[in-house]
Every structure is written in structure tokens, then in C-alpha cells.
Amino acid sequence: MADLDLQEIHDFLITIAHKAGEMITAAHPSTGAAGSKKNSADLVTETDRAVETMVSTSLSEKYPNIAFMGEETYTPNTRLTPSPTFIVDPIDGTTNFVHHHPYVSISLGLCINLLPTIGVVYNPFTQTLYTAIRGRGAFLNRTTPLPLTRPAPLTDLSKCLVAVEWGSDRSGPDYAVKTRTFARLAAAKQDGGAMVHGLRSWGSAALNLCAVASGAVDAYWEAGCWAWDVCAGWVVLSEAGGLVVDANPGNWEPSVDGRRYLAVRGGEGQRGIVEEFWGCVEGAFEVGRENP
Ligand code: IPD
């Protein structure tokens, strides 16, 4: 496995992403036809399943020795191992997809030794492609280096635009941590808040990470999403100078399948923003405790 040709795998993943993009844009999804998984806000469509089948079949034919983890075929409680593993979300942003909102992507990642190593994130509606190989830089549409502009210093959260996600779990202690933290991030300083410039909730973790990589948002915070939502975008972000830490305060080295993430763009003052953000987290998430 030491001799994996990362460039060849990267190029093949891009070919697959385009093929998946054709399937996604040709589909006619509807809210009525979408099925649900754990609850009515956790959606899946026939297209999610068909794209995952196409991706897993193509990958296993070409790379039979590389393991596969995909959203639609995941067996609960399976942990990522150090063996090379493709980590795939056939449609990240399924809720947007069924509502014809174009913030949708296919997310194709490769982890080696538990490290996100190749990332390909493609939005077929806007034809926006983010790609990266560990140690070789991150790119928009293959040629434009990320971030898109020279990153300004990160001085404090009150000057940041922050992406967050509600996710599909809408009750319980973790939901309370989220909603109280959202309020704290938004609130005025005199009321104990960080008064960020704004909170955005776009509905695709993979594209959110790429937005942090490109510099369109300064940070992204979520707990509850999965390795397939973040693996590919993580490589793009790291290669653009960004950092991923735990959504709960204190852990600078979260695991890919740890289910809690805080991403901060590149730039002087990055670690200070992490500390300030952690100071705004109202409690601690339980999700991911089983995946330390
Ligand atoms: C979802 C999206 C969403 C995030 C959820 C994910 P899906 O992925 O990434 O932004 O908030 O946690 O599950 O279900 O559309 O593949």
C-alpha cells in the first residue's frame, strides 16, 4: 500500500465526481419522494443510493485493496481503521437537493493511517470543484490555488463570519448545546456574546469546509455529522492553511470519525480564534464520545 499513486487516485476521483454530478443534475428529486432515516429531517433519496453504488463499484473495480466507507451503506458502530479507506458521501446536502437548493456536493475522500489524504468535493449545480492531495496544495477548479485571497489576520470572533449547522437531531442535550452556543455567538458583547458578523447555515458540511478553505467564511462549527461529510473537505481546508479541531473545547487533534468539528481558516491568529470560540461553547457535546 506504500506505493499508492495519490495523483492517479485523485484524478480518478475527479472523473467519478463528474459522473456523479451528471446523475445528480439529471435527477428529479422531490420532498414527497425522499425517504427518511432516523427522523423526518434526515433525508435520503434514490439518487443518493444510486450514486453511492456507482462510486463504490467504480472504486472497488479499480482499487480492490482499498476499503470503502459510504454514507448509505455504513454499518453502525464501524470505526475507521488505519488502512487506506475511501470515505464517500454521494450527496452531501440531501435536504437542499430535494428542495432544489443548489448547495449540494459529492464528497470523495481518501484516508490513510487515519489522516485525510485526498479530497474531492464537487458541486454539480454550480460546477465548482475543490480538490487537494495532502502536502500538494488545494485548488478550485483544478488550477486556482486556495485560499482565493491572502488571508487577513484573525483578530477576534466579532470580525468573523461563521458557518454552523442545525443538523437533523432536534432535541436533547446536544441540541441545547448547539442552540445556546448559536445565541451566544450572535449576541451583543454587553450581553456576554461574541457578536460575530453573521451565522450561516447552508446545509453541506463538505462545502462549508471548502468555503472556509477558500476564505468565504472564517470558521465552521458542527457536531453530529460524520466522517463522509468531512473527510474530503478536511484535506482541502488543511492544504489551504486551515485547521480542524474538536467542536468541544480542549482537543486540538480530533479524529476524522469523531463527529465534532471546528474548522478555522488560515491566517495569523488562527489558534486564538479557536480558543475564543471554545470559550463560547455552552457545555459539551455528547455525540462522538464513543469515538474518542
Ligand atoms: C448533512 C449535511 C449537513 C449537516 C448534516 C449532514 P447529508 O449531510 O452535511 O450540512 O448539518 O449533519 O448529515 O445528510 O446531506 O449527506
Give your account of this protein's structure.
The protein is an alpha+beta fold and 292 residues long. The protein folds into two domains: 6-145, Fructose-1,6-Bisphosphatase, subunit A, domain 1 (Fructose-1,6-Bisphosphatase, Chain A, domain 1, 2-Layer Sandwich); 157-278, D-Maltodextrin-Binding Protein, domain 2 (3-Layer(aba) Sandwich), CATH 3.40.190.80. Helices cover 30% and strands 22% of the residues. The chain has seven helices and 14 strands. It has helices at residues 6-26, 46-62, 94-98, 173-186, 205-214, 227-239, 270-278, and strands spanning 35-36, 43-44, 67-70, 85-92, 105-112, 115-123, 128-133, 138-140, 144-145, 161-164, 198-200, 219-223, 243-245, 260-264. The chain has a seven-stranded mixed β-sheet with strand order 3-4-5-6-7-8-9, with helices on both faces. A five-stranded mixed β-sheet has the order 11-10-12-14-13, with helices on both faces. A hairpin with a 4-residue loop joins strand 6 (115-123) and strand 7 (128-133). The protein is globular, with a radius of gyration of 18 Å. The relative contact order is 0.14. The structure holds D-MYO-inositol-1-phosphate. Residues 71, 89, 91-94, 165, 167, 203-205, 222, 224-225, 229 line the site of D-MYO-inositol-1-phosphate. D-MYO-inositol-1-phosphate binds next to strand 4.
